[in-house]
Design a protein that fits this description.
It is found in: Cell membrane. This protein has about 500 residues and is mainly alpha-helical. It is globular.
Length: about 500
């Protein structure tokens, strides 16, 4: 039995297109109502909506401007940076600026709604106070970030706060009084500049006239404020906003420059975990003794060669949620992953290999970096840690290998992109590289589409050799929505699918 990949998606394609039409019709209806309300209520509603979006865009501008300021402050680190590098940093880091600007614009949106119903003088007091607090807060964050980066080597997060509140005396012991006074002075200047920008652009000298259609204006403004959810979350994909989305370069300093320290501080503070005492089950000496027993002592001073060539091309396929029960050669059921069973006789089969973890992000780190997976957290969520991990791709890149990563899903999920780029992989093919008609699963493009793209790239692009190409599957991820129905069990459908895929893939190579 063979797979007709063009027919596999027909039953889902119509369903997904229908759902998208309903969603688009719903959004278009809301947008039409908003535009009609603006037309009917004239100048007042237009001015108040424009003021709201002007507030949001001003926050975006102020936040984005700090990136070139950071690079100019550390001009020695970015001595070779060109104008295009400054622009790339701003553009790639814009998603985090849009997110933070969304958070900062919620209160102004609510104050504009309140201005429709409450005393203008009261709203003016709240508004001036809010922008004053934001100016001081931004000044504090950006000053601390610029000052501490030279010592810590990463953008501001909750780490300095942890040390300060744990022991303020020790945290301030290494700081000279002159440096403290100088930093406070910088912070004050920063706060004044921020506040003056907000005051000149946003502070109204005269209140808007009372609008007779308060209810309609409130509805429209509430809808506009609700739209902030989109940049705050980072869109509608499965991945939410995370620091990894701004990573784009194999130069880690440029990636750091693209990070918004407000976001990194907020994210680390909300998801802060103290790992110090979580895994202390015995004293260090006893743990070292037990671990030493698990370490194999080399019987020779050389490693036996597994390949005929010294620098072979490598295709590394990572199977999501695969199980040994789908393979007869591993003691599982027959007639499931038939072609995979056939391939076991042509290479080396590890029969005592177990899953690294129960989640993709944790298992991926274990596979590529050899880092043990933790039961309650994932190191992939901490880019400042993953950038220091050794990895197979990083070692091969140092040996002259060309690296590429294929994944039909969202490469920004759980900071995956930042880990891959830190490992030296800048050429990443993900869901955004496939047309919408191919992204029919919850997670993105199904594996047979990704494998087809992979084979096409090898045949047409003639990649640089030697190369390491990694393919990560996703069709076998829950909810196991596999477009293949030779077997009824959802756990074995993807095993059978991969059997077919690997058979076709192996023959094509």
């Amino acid at each position: 039995m063979t797979i007709d990949f063009k027919l596999l998606n027909k039953y889902k394609y119509k369903k997904n297109i229908t759902q998208r039409k309903i969603k688009n019709t719903y959004l278009a209806t809301i947008f039409t109502i908003t535009i009609n309300s603006l037309k009917k209520n004239g100048y007042y509603m237009k001015s108040i909506i424009l003021y709201f979006f002007k507030t949001y865009l001003l926050f975006v501008f102020v936040l984005a401007l700090q990136k070139p300021v950071f690079m100019l402050f550390y001009h020695d680190l970015f001595a070779g940076a060109k104008a295009a590098d400054f622009l790339d940093v701003v553009c790639h880091g814009l998603v985090l600026d849009l997110s933070i600007a969304g958070y900062l614009s919620i209160i102004p949106g609510l104050l504009l709604i309140g201005a429709l119903w409450l005393s203008p003088s009261l709203i003016r007091i709240f508004r001036n106070t809010y922008f004053g607090i934001i100016a001081v807060l931004l000044a504090f964050i950006y000053t601390c970030d610029i000052v501490l980066y030279q010592y810590w080597g990463f953008r501001l997060d909750s780490t300095p706060l942890f040390y300060f509140f744990s022991s303020p005396k020790n945290a301030m012991a290494s700081a000279e009084i002159g440096m403290i006074i100088g930093n406070i002075g910088i912070m004050i200047v920063y706060a004044i500049v921020f506040y003056m920008i907000f005051r000149l652009v946003l502070m109204r000298r005269k209140p808007l006239p009372v609008n007779k259609t308060r209810i309609k204006t409130t509805i429209v403004l509430s809808f506009a404020t609700g739209l902030l959810f989109i940049p705050i979350r980072g869109g509608f994909s499965v991945s939410t906003m995370n620091i990894g989305k701004v990573y784009y370069s194999d130069n880690i300093k440029l990636n750091h420059a693209a990070i918004n320290p407000c976001f990194s501080l907020m994210e680390s503070s909300l998801h802060n975990s103290n790992f110090e005492k979580q895994y202390r089950f015995m004293d260090s000496q006893k743990a070292d003794e037990i671990f030493d027993l698990l370490t194999d002592k080399p019987v020779t001073d050389s490693i036996p060669a597994l390949f005929t060539g010294e620098r072979p091309n490598i295709v590394f396929i990572i199977l999501e949620s695969f199980l040994s029960k789908a393979m007869e050669t591993l003691g599982g059921l027959p007639n499931v992953a038939v072609h995979l069973d056939e391939l076991t006789g042509e290479g080396i089969l590890f029969t005592n290999f177990h899953a690294n973890s129960f989640r993709t992000d944790r298992g991926l780190i274990s596979i590529l970096s050899g880092y043990p997976a933790q039961p309650t957290t994932s190191i992939m969520k901490y880019p400042k840690k993953t950038q220091s991990l050794p990895s197979i791709p990083h070692s091969l890149k140092a040996a002259g290998y060309d690296l590429q990563y294929y994944y039909g899903g969202d490469a920004d999920f759980t900071n995956m992109r930042s880990f891959l780029i830190s490992a030296g992989i800048t050429n990443i093919v993900s869901d955004k590289d496939f047309p919408l008609s191919d992204r029919l699963s919850k997670w993105g493009a199904h594996d047979h589409i990704v494998f087809t793209r992979f084979l096409s790239d090898i045949e047409n692009e003639k990649p640089q050799e030697p190369f390491l190409k990694i393919v990560q599957t996703l069709s076998s991820h829950e909810p196991f929505d596999v477009p293949f129905h030779r077997l009824s069990s959802p756990f074995f459908k993807f095993g059978s699918l991969y059997g077919q895929l690997f058979g076709r893939f192996y023959q094509s190579l």
